[in-house]
What we know:
The chain has 313 residues and is α+β, with helices and mostly antiparallel strands. It has two domains: 3-160, no CATH class; 164-305. Helix content is 54%, strand content 6%. It has helices at 3-22, 70-81, 108-116, 125-130, 133-140, 151-160, 164-191, 195-216, 227-231, 240-249, 254-277, 288-297, 302-305, and strands at residues 31-34, 59-62, 86-87, 90-91, 104-107, 143-146. The strands form two sheets. It has a four-stranded mixed beta sheet, with helices on both faces. A two-stranded antiparallel sheet has the order 3-4. Helix 10 (240-249) packs antiparallel against helix 11 (254-277). The longest helix is centred in the middle third of the chain and has 28 residues, at 164-191. It is elongated and about 70 Å long.
Amino acid sequence: MKGLELAKEFYKTYGEPMLREQFPEWQGKIAVGLVGSGSECYGFDDEISRDHDFEPGFCLFLPDESVIDRQVAFRLERAYAKLPKEFAGFARQNLNPVGGNRHGVIRLSDFYLEKVGSPDGTLSTEQWLALPSYALAEATNGEVFRDDYGVFSSIRAALCNMPEDVRRKRIAGNLLLMAQSGQYNYNRCLAHGESGAAQLAAIEFAKAAMQVIFLLNRAYMPYYKWSFRALRALPKFSELAETLEFLLTTENTGDLKETKYLVIEDIASMVIGELQEQNMTKAICGDLEKHAYSVNDSITDPDLRNRNIFSAV
């Protein structure tokens, strides 16, 4: 059983009756779900994942104290702690009194402050530019089982909707990295006899390409160890997971050198085609650098457009 399914079943079996019977006047103001850190929040958990931080549990996201005060929050914590210690063959972990738990009673403002630096999800342009994609992924992954009050879900929806100018700035910077590392420096490093540096160039190209692919899908790339699994699930370019793995796992010798460069160009061509499909570039060529600056030129906010092209990378 996957962690998300386990969390939902545990909530339906024990959590929902607990709220209905013990907290009837507040149950409609509590968001319930499984969101945040951990492979189970992405649906990526397997048997290996269960060696740490895996348990039947869910999150109870509370609005501010003017709606649900500390006394009620404390009662909720105690009630949650008294839920069965085992469910579906999995044992629950002991609650940590000094924090660090991924489940249980959580102020929604504390959750969003930890993940994105804002208690209500309102982000300035500076914050949008600086936030790593994995932080936004952790703030918006998983599943919300119930949210009658709607505050948690409204913040979540806003965070899923990255401002278009910021998206384009991130794409532009990563396109330029793709151009520099893949289309330019990979072959130059090989010409210098620097196979290790060439492989670093391939790695930098792959990392930047993945960022662009997620952004073109209007999705957030998670923490690197789950990035390929998430890539395979994207609507567009999921097939490039195998291609990018080829770049990362093969040597830079013999015929492989030419093959890898052709692969880099193929990926560049596919990305350019999608940029044109989304009307993000006016450049007509195979040079990713020119497309990077064309995407940057399409940014409507003049202050953001005139910033260094790498300012969101």
